[in-house]
Amino acid sequence: MQKLLVCYKWVLDEQDIKIAGDLSLDTGRAKYKISDYDKNAIEEGVLLAEKHGAGVEALTFGTEAAKQSLKDALSRGLDKVYWIGDEAGKQADAFVTANILAAAVNKIGSFDLILCGEGSSDSYSQQTAPRLAGLLGVPAITYVQQLTVVDGHIVAIRKLGDCTEEITVTGPAVISVLPEINKPRIPGLKQVMAAAKKPSEEIKVTDLGLAAEKLAPKVRSTSLKGYSMDRKKVIFKEANPADNVAKLVASLAQEGLC
């Protein structure tokens, strides 16, 4: 294994998003971050590169804000980051994202393994990785919780409900990883300072040669709203605690909760 690529997304930090009284979302003060699931993909790519003496680079697509991710991404052990910032990133769904990523991969060059997070922290469609694999014509393995390279073969253990499945493939391949695959490192000051000296490269969507229909999303968000959970505020005031418990159980059973 000589070269790995990690795809990640720069998303709004959900902890900073506020829900207004009319349930509209206030993102005015929200900061961006690398999608939590993609941090696992980056960590796994770096771990594999360190173990096998391979190179590991990253690719991200989004709006112009994607450029802000470079220092954080590079401080996590990556050798280089390719970034694509375009207006198409505002409404891009998995269809558009996969088309752009695939075209960018073909432009950059070949890779032995491409890693993605299970899904992004915002839309969590879980479609980008398998779509990317299909466009590149390589195997896709999803929900991977353990990954090794043995004698040049990629061995993945994927989680399927209450069981696991072991799959062995020869690269190149696209693999999406679960959060339990590793614990992403927290970059220290040394790593953050070193990131400033690492290379990054911008790729323009207009240079990818994609037809207009490849940039037209199949799914569009027409509105985004928060949700509220109204409590029933049922209070049981029987003198005998056992009677309160009995009424509670009966109430839960009536709601289909027990």
How does this structure look, described?
With 258 residues, this protein is an alpha/beta fold. It has 2 domains: 3-215, HUPs (Rossmann fold, 3-Layer(aba) Sandwich); 231-258. Helices cover 26% and strands 27% of the residues. It has 6 helices and 13 strands. The chain has helices at residues 36-52, 70-74, 94-108, 128-136, 189-195, 241-254, and strands at residues 3-8, 10-12, 18-19, 25-26, 32-34, 55-62, 80-85, 113-117, 140-150, 153-160, 163-170, 174-177, 200-202. Strands 11-10-9-12-8-1-6-7-13 form a 9-stranded mixed β-sheet, with helices on both faces. The longest helix is centred in the first third of the chain and has 17 residues, at 36-52.
